[in-house]
Amino acid sequence: MTIVLTPYWTNGVQKLKLAPQRMPLLFSPSQWIPIRRTAVKPKRGLVPPILDESVHALRCLNQLRSKDKSIEKYIYLSALKDQDPNMFYKLCLENMSEITPVIYTPTVGDACLQYSHIYRRPEGLFVSIKDKGNIREVINNWPRIDEARISVVTDGSRILGLGDLGVNGMPISIGKLSLYIAGAGIRPQSTVPICLDLGTNTQKYLDDPLYLGLRQKRVSDKEMTEFMDEFMHEMSAAFPKLMIQFEDFSTDNAFKYLERYRNKYAVFNDDIQGTGAVVLSGFLNAAKLSSAASGQPLSSHRILFFGAGSAGVGVAQQLMSFFTLQGLSKEEARRRIWLVDSQGLVYNARGRLAEHKKYFSRDDYNGAPMTDLVEIIKHVQPTALLGLSTITGAFTPEVIQTMASINARPILFPLSNPIRLSECSFADAVQYTNGSVLFASGSPFPEQQFRGTTLYPGQGNNMYIFPGLGLAAILGRVSSVTDSMVEASSLGLADSLNDEEHAQGLLYPRIERIREISGQIAKAVIRAAQREGVDRNESLRGLNDVDLLKLIREKMWTPQ
Ligand SMILES: O=C([O-])CC(=O)C(=O)O
Ligand SMILES: [Mg+2]
After folding, report:
1. Using a 6 Å cutoff on CB, does residue 271 contact ligand 1?
2. 248 Cβ below 6 A of ligand 1
């Protein structure tokens, strides 16, 4: 027994008391000795007489399926990951389409909302504003510094479309890294989920006695930047081989910190670049089908973005490559894109604009503000409507019908997450376009029967991109993540559809093939890194494509 200062709550105010306590477990057992624990053969008598691995997998699956609520499934799987990581990842790999929506979008959104209430064991690293000046010390507490290769870092300020969740954002970092492991075979012990606690502006959490984060509003921009500079410096000093994925920072900060660090460290922003790349990939496949139906060239597509936050503008920037790949200049590509924000069509004559919207702001419209989406569609005549607004149902039946009235095969991508914030459902998109829609959403929707055929929705979620991109960054030991590497990930994904998927009109490959796809993406990204000279693993340079792909596959970790 030791005497420790224990925090407790009274009337919403945190106080400390001296109390006897057993030595706290600093990390859960799985954080100390992940995976290896199950690799050791247990002594006779310490496990049931018959514990067949495949039967046990079925047992776990049955336990999972016996839970009614998705959040209960999430809690069950979190416990399984902690107790038996090999079995957890085996189940993930063998049941990708069933398990991904539980450990990731959309259920991870609920897990974040409820994190402080469902919390059981520590997982990941928490770095708070109170650690400013001493961040090195906190980072050095991570138990597997030498093995660390990939970290997902969030500050919880814009989790999915759910807003500022503060330290409750931790499950998003955990969920993304589970997909790195399942989807690209990154070794579990190489992953570092991080949640930065810089306060929260969500009063509900500040008032919640169970909230796990600091009881304070978010710090000023200046203080945050000082903190981030120190954090990034210490991360690169402690983990020289680490690649960092920024996740779910609020719009301005997402752009700001990507620009600030992208040429200095190996970082990328999943919401700007990952989402951009996955949408470009689906768009490439959709545009081919749409142009085949309309007889119009690929270069004539016109894209309307509903939502102009970090994800919207990030995707718009990435989709410029769609046009430049068709031979258009950058300026011509820019002019094929229109943005709509909360005040309607974004155009210069409207007045002051946020910095990140300026590039796509139109100079060819000077009329009155245009706020009605149907009116905007009639004005712009887009071939594609992309939603990144987190406004549920913003693509009303009338909006969808208007898109169908001007396009033989309209492209509709309601990309907001989680599912309940989607701009429209797949069922509505099918119904109001008479089955002609080319559809991808951020969260998963069920397939639809339409006039005797099964129609499949695409899931334009960055989960297709980041595992392969991260794997390439690790294997290539890249010094930074360049635009061409991100573009290569997108083209690698677009090219990965097999014959059956083409025949079914899919825009993205089946998620069950994620490892194969991640391998192909990683190969394309490593080649791009080599062309740009940001790769530091010289041994990969002499390999031909077949051998490079073989090596990538061999490097992937698989559950035993
Ligand atoms: O996490 C997801 O499903 C996709 C994503 O990055 C976001 O919506 O912020
Ligand atoms: Mg995100």
Report:
1. yes
2. yes
Q: Which of 173, 248, 441 to mutate to test the pocket of ligand 1 (most atoms within 8 A of CB)?
A: 248
Amino acid of residue 165? L
- Point out the ligand nearest to the CA of residue 465: 1
Written as one string, the DSSP assignment of 166-184 is: GGGGHHHHHHHHHHHHHHH
417 labelled ligand-binding = yes
User: Whole-prediction pTM value?
Assistant: 0.90
Ligand sitting nearest the alpha carbon of 276: 1
The rounded Å distance from CA 289 to ligand 1 centre is 26
- The residue whose CA has the least distance to atom 6 of ligand 1 is 271
Cα–Cα distance measured from residue 488 to residue 481, given in angstroms and rounded to the nearest whole number? 11
Nearest CA to 78 out of 37, 127, 122, 32 is that of 122
Residue 105 CB less than 6 A away from ligand 1: yes
Ligand 1 atom nearest to 104, measured from its CA: 3
- Residue 121 marked as a ligand binder: no
Q: Annotated binding residue at 164?
A: no
* Residues near ligand 2 ion, CB 5 Å cutoff: 248, 271
**DSSP codes of every residue in 383-412:** SEEEE-S--TT-S-HHHHHHHHHH-SS-EE
Separation of alpha carbons 111 and 89, rounded Å: 19
Task: For the chain, 560 residues long, give each residue's pLDDT as a single digit of tens.
Answer: 344 444 444 444 445 555 444 333 344 444 443 444 445 677 889 989 888 889 999 999 999 999 999 999 999 999 999 999 999 999 999 999 999 999 999 999 999 999 999 999 999 999 999 999 999 999 999 999 999 999 999 999 999 999 999 999 999 999 999 999 999 999 999 999 999 999 999 999 999 999 999 999 999 999 999 999 999 999 999 999 999 999 999 988 999 999 999 999 999 999 999 999 999 999 999 999 999 999 999 999 999 999 998 789 989 999 999 999 999 999 999 999 999 999 999 999 999 999 889 999 999 999 999 999 999 999 999 999 999 999 999 999 999 999 999 999 999 999 998 999 999 999 999 999 999 999 999 999 999 999 999 999 999 999 999 999 999 999 999 999 999 999 999 999 999 999 999 999 999 999 999 999 999 999 999 999 999 999 999 999 999 999 999 999 999 999 98
**Mutation test residue for ligand 1: of 271, 272, 415, the one with most atoms within 8 Å of CB:** 271
Flag whether the ipTM exceeds 0.85: yes
Residue 390 Cβ < 6 Å to ligand 1:
no
Residues composing the chain = 560
Contact 323, 332 (CB under 8 A): yes
Nearest atom (ligand 1) to Cα of 274: 6
> Which residues are known catalytic residues?
104, 176
Q: Closest Cα to atom 9, ligand 1: which residue?
A: 160
Type of residue numbered 238: A
479 vs 95: CA distance, rounded Å: 35
How many helices and strands (H and E) does the chain possess? 24, 16
